[in-house]
Structures are given as C-alpha cells and as structure tokens.
C-alpha cells in the first residue's frame, strides 16, 4: 500500500463512523501494531478492531473537528457520541507506515467511558 497518511486517517475515521469494522481492520498493520489510551493497552490489530466494534455498539456519532499531518503522523481531534455517556472529546495520534496504521495513541476523559 502507498496511501498517504492523511488518506489513511480519513479512511479510518470514515470506517469507524460508519461501523465498517472489517474495512477499519484492513487499515491496521498486520505486523507491529499498538494502541495506547486511558482504558486499554493493545498490541495487536484484531483486538483493536474488536474493541472499536464494541464501542460501535453504543456509538451514535463521531465528529472529526480537526486533523494535523506531519510526515507519517496524523493527529485528529474529534468528539465521540454514545448512548451511554456524554459526548467525549478525543485527541488521537495515528502513525502510518506503508499505508497502514502501526500505532494509535488516544487521550480522552475516560471517567464516563469506563463502563463501555
């Protein structure tokens, strides 16, 4: 794959927003992959896909507010809406290599999301 990091990030959020988790999984690296956030540390793409799919079960919306690209990194600020918690602001840092996401770092207030 040779997709630009910005294009990969757009496709990632589009797949997540539209609950197309198999499409989302295809954007995650089969090799080295990691996710780090307030509620989880994940070291494989399949587990990340499954975790986002569980959130998708209660997610009612995802609004991307702004993205910034620097070389292979894309930082996106977005709000996730769910049926079980107030809207939550998230800062998300994707690292992309060879058209696939190799790491995701997320920062958000986990207090309301801990039950999901």
TrEMBL record:
Gene3D superfamilies per record: 3.10.450.50
InterPro entries: NTF2-like_dom_sf, SnoaL-like
Domain SnoaL-like: start-end pairs: 11-103
Pfam families documented for this protein: SnoaL_2
Name by which UniProt lists this protein: Nuclear transport factor 2 family protein
Organism: Streptomyces rubiginosohelvolus
Lineage: Bacteria, Bacillati, Actinomycetota, Actinomycetes, Kitasatosporales
């Amino acid at each position: 794959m040779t997709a630009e990091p910005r294009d990969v990030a757009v496709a990632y959020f589009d797949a997540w927003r539209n609950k197309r988790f198999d499409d989302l999984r295809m954007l995650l690296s089969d090799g080295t992959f990691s996710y780090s956030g307030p509620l989880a540390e994940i070291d494989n793409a399949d587990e990340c896909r499954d975790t986002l799919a569980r959130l998708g079960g209660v997610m009612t919306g995802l609004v991307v507010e702004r993205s910034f690209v620097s070389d292979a990194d894309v930082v996106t600020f977005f709000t996730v809406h769910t049926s079980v918690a107030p809207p939550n602001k998230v800062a998300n840092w994707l690292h992309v290599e060879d058209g696939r996401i190799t790491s995701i770092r997320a920062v958000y207030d986990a207090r309301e999301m801990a039950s999901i």
